[in-house]
Design goal:
Length: 148
Amino acid sequence: MAPLLLLAVFLFAQGGGIYAPVRARKPRLPKVDRGACPFEGCQFGTWTAQTAIPVYSTWKSQPSGNPVRTLQKGENITAVTGIHITYKPTRIQMTSAIPKYHLQAGDTVLLYMSQGEGFYTAWFNGYWFENFDGSGGLKRWFRLPEKL
């Protein structure tokens, strides 16, 4: 127990942890996150179709776009992995500063994937964040576009 606690204290003392940014170029689109659980509270395993759902052999655009089959309402499937595809990130403009991220009013933040509980993958000012914390009332810091 003591070595684990010591490691956690060391990481946060060094400025690491969930707020540590990575210098990066803006991601190319579409941004593909393999292994993602695509909704809050998501768990892999047995899923039950709530409505009829078309099933495709790939997420990539196909000339025909025809499904390989359709799951019927009530039919069970086993989900073993997931994928999240961002074709266009949500663009937000800061209306006030968030000091822990060095964000100023007027800065633009691109949100790619919700991690749940108010966290997002995000890119801004030349940095990539795996866990951008928007849980503390992000709406007071930015304005959403009229259309997402």
